[in-house]
Amino acid sequence: MSDKLTLPKPQGPVDGAAETLLSVEGLTKHFPIYGGFPIKRKVGAVQAVDGVDLSVGVGESVGLVGESGCGKSTTGRLITRLLEPTAGKITYAGQDISHASRRQLAPVRSEIQMIFQDPYSSLNPRQTVGTIIKSPMEVNGINPKGGIEKRVRELLELVGLNPEHYNRFPHEFSGGQRQRIGVARALSLNPKLIVADEPVSALDVSIQAQVVNLLQKVQEEMGIAFLFIAHDLAIVRHFSQRLAVMYLGKVVEVGDRDSIYNRPRHPYTHALLSAVPEVTLDDETEDRERIRLSGDVPSPIHPPSGCRFRTRCWKAQDKCATTEPPLVQISGNSANHLTACHFPEDPTTEARAEDIVLDPALAALEKEGE
Amino acid sequence: MTTLTKTEGEKAPGGPEAFLSVRDLRVRFSTEDGIVKAVDGLSFDVERGKTLGIVGESGSGKSVTNLTVLGLHNPKTATVEGEIVLDGKELVTATEKEMEKLRGNKVAMIFQDPLTALSPYYTVGRQIAEPFMKHTGASKKEAKLRAIEMLDKVGIPQPAMRFEDYPHQFSGGMRQRAMIAMSLICNPDLLIADEPTTALDVTVQAQILDLLKDLQQEFGSAIIFITHDLGVISKMADDLLVMYSGRAVERGSVREVLRAPQHPYTWGLLSSMPRLGGDTAQALTPIPGTPPSLLNPPSGCPFHPRCGFTAEVGGNRCSGERPELPAGRGAACHLDDEQKSTFFIEQIKPRLG
């Protein structure tokens, strides 16, 4: 088992033709809300994830982006089966695991691992680093060649930590180093899929790059598929070959990296991309478009009818309120690029003639300034 | 009150007199493990109506500096040396009573996490109105009207109704707007924003940044904008100060620092950031190692253990001698000016895509 560590898997680049490792169809998770007195009844549901279709190929890295509260973390937790889906189907390596029991899941669990956002709360402060990394192996009864301790030292070295630090406690490490421990723990079972939930957003800028490079090395050298959940679009672009954009529990646009970043069609993707502040190095750099959405994501307890983005969309018409747009390939897009919108945008990210400002306070201030 | 209406004659055109000037500021905390030199010889100026950006990693002393300006450090554990002059008034030696008069009135602060900065026990409206009542002696009714006006200004819908809400009824972006309303209610001359958008989504961040910029134009306040995101800084600030290990390592206008950075640490920051237009095939170039401990800062240049250019300086100048930050545009580095510009253009710029 342990020699798998340095074996680069022979999978070539993913062209959409790669074998599917994980596929998700119509995945739904509603968290019930109880209320009433004296008998508590279900009075509603938080529709955290509502009909998500997604697939991850073998060795492929898929990014999942969206604002907070859009259900991206819940999707990650459903895929690792930390949560039981309300409806829909999760297929992992040809096996339906959407409602599998604990016992049925046991062999699958070791192949799907997770890296958490906060390296401070995801490591047990009372265990040494060695214990933290070896416990997944002990739980699964794996005894690698040369013993568990040797394997732990190998893993520590792989993630760029000193193997001598085997007996140290998490508080002796900095944030970036702790995240490396989390990565080592996820790798200890030779997983085929890692769900990384905002793995770098709690780290400093200079450290972020270190961890992103480590994850990229792991992904390329060991052929591990990644579901990379993040809100930083620049980092996702750097890390993922494919990308899905979520809004309020639904996937609104999915496609290859270049297709999404260079030719986004959904207004929400446009707005997200235009909101990223970027350092401009040259005067010649053309201004990117500027779209300012108003307000926040609506409540997932009572999501808007029809298209969920219509309450913040500048293109919304009557049709958007009545019919929900399907996630389909729009004319002019490549085969893998699907968009759920009735009135898609022109496929360009260059500056438009006029900024779109939907924020009432900004609109008022700008009017005063004129 | 006199502070409420700014005297018109004061904003003399082209008068570059600094509104806030910090000279050789040193802040030390004594802890069980020893003395932490959180800020070590920092000097900067902020002009009226301008925005100074301060960037740096966590632990570089950017927040401590600004808490010290407001006098919010714990006087029992912290020792402050140096000079902080705000509009001709010395703040380091000011009494607590004098500071109280300034806070929320002449100087206001926006904190990073609006949920912990607002009290869950009082309504949002009351918290916004309180500094106004305290500093202007306005009645409750007047303060309420003013608070509603401010809520409206920062774009909170139905401000009169929202006045009665508690912070938990607001979303993250709205809470930050409420914080901005609170800090601007007395027309402060200086606004300190400590990572005001770090906890927010990109779309909301863009709203808040635009709002701050437009409100600054309207009120003419000076802003100190602290962040670790160079992208945000490039949109917000006029001048930029890069901090590392309690010291300023580079200073200049935003254009100068971001387009022709001179300090290896600034190079590192720029090349470790992925960019939307960058080349995805190229690996990011992180800064090796970790930020230094402030208990035992490295000798000489604090950045030398992580710097890739120490060999170019020659000898052990980097580990032995502390480089000084020149006044005005410049960087605290032993490399000479020619080296700085050639290294940046030949080695760093190609990586930035």
UniProtKB/TrEMBL annotation, chain B:
It is a peripheral membrane protein. The keyword Ribonucleoprotein does not apply. PANTHER family: DIPEPTIDE TRANSPORT ATP-BINDING PROTEIN DPPD, OLIGOPEPTIDE TRANSPORT ATP-BINDING PROTEIN APPD. Residues 22-270 form the ABC transporter domain. It comes from Streptomyces tauricus. This is ABC transporter ATP-binding protein. NCBIfam families: oligo_HPY. Gene3D superfamilies: P-loop containing nucleotide triphosphate hydrolases. Keywords: ATP-binding, Cell membrane, Membrane, Nucleotide-binding, Transport. One of its GO terms (molecular function) is ATP binding. Belongs to the ABC transporter superfamily. SUPFAM superfamilies: P-loop containing nucleoside triphosphate hydrolases. It holds the Pfam family oligo_HPY. It is found in: Cell membrane. InterPro entries: AAA+_ATPase (IPR003593), ABC_Ni/Peptide_Import (IPR050388), ABC_transporter-like_ATP-bd (IPR003439), ABC_transporter-like_CS (IPR017871), Oligopep_ABC_C (IPR013563), P-loop_NTPase (IPR027417).
